[in-house]
Description:
The chain is α/β, with parallel strands linked by helices. Helices cover about 40% and strands about 10% of the residues. The protein has 2 domains: about 5-15 and about 90-205, HAD superfamily/HAD-like (Rossmann fold), CATH 3.40.50; about 20-80, DNA polymerase, domain 1, CATH 1.10.150. The protein is built from 11 helices and 7 strands. The chain has a 5-stranded parallel β-sheet with strand order 5-4-1-6-7. A two-stranded antiparallel sheet has the order 2-3. Helix 4 (about 55-70) packs across helix 5.
Amino acid sequence: MKRPPTIVFDLGGVLVENATLSALGELLPEPIDAGATRDRWLASKSVRAFELGRSDPAAFAASFIAEWDLALSPGEFLAEFVTWPRAFWPDSLALIAELRPHHQVACLSNCNELHWARFGGFTEHFDAAFSSHLLGRIKPDRDVFEMVLERLAVKPDAAYFFDDSPTCVDAARDLGIRAYLADSPGSCRDVLVAEGLCERPVEQARQPANHGPDSKLQPQARGAVVCRLRAGRHTD
Length: 236
């Protein structure tokens, strides 16, 4: 029997309420839009060093404040920074619990020691949980996706990936992963329902999802074969 697809989620902005872009925007000396803030964050040398596990919180705070020209002390900045990931949306945990009996479910997050510790034992909700600061690899770099696929023992076209960053989605797509842009557990569910990988809750069953040409939930990996696998849970 063919192995069911593996499903990999980003955390912040997809399964976890994340205030990074809005909170950071309020600290900047000059306002910029959320998309530009996200792109700058992904390219930031101080952020990459911290999320690769190459700097400690004190060094990160000092370098980030200088790089982004913030009018805060390192202590003030860290007190703000640690609160930016809020919590898992309730629908996130329900979706994961529904998927795990049938699929290998993982998360892949650009994260750091402060935010990873903030959620305690959340990793038990996944079959595998990957953070950039523990892997020493970071999105959108190709090697982080290659490493995760290897550890999950899955081929690119047998993996679904959900992220709120177009840059990260494009990077996953370039490797052959079935990558989708998503900004909530509901938007992830819309794709998974359309692909036959989970069911819509009863109260939503009569509400058609928007998968038209303008929907941001269009697959980023073209030519994906629709998989309707409801087999038992995978075995390694």
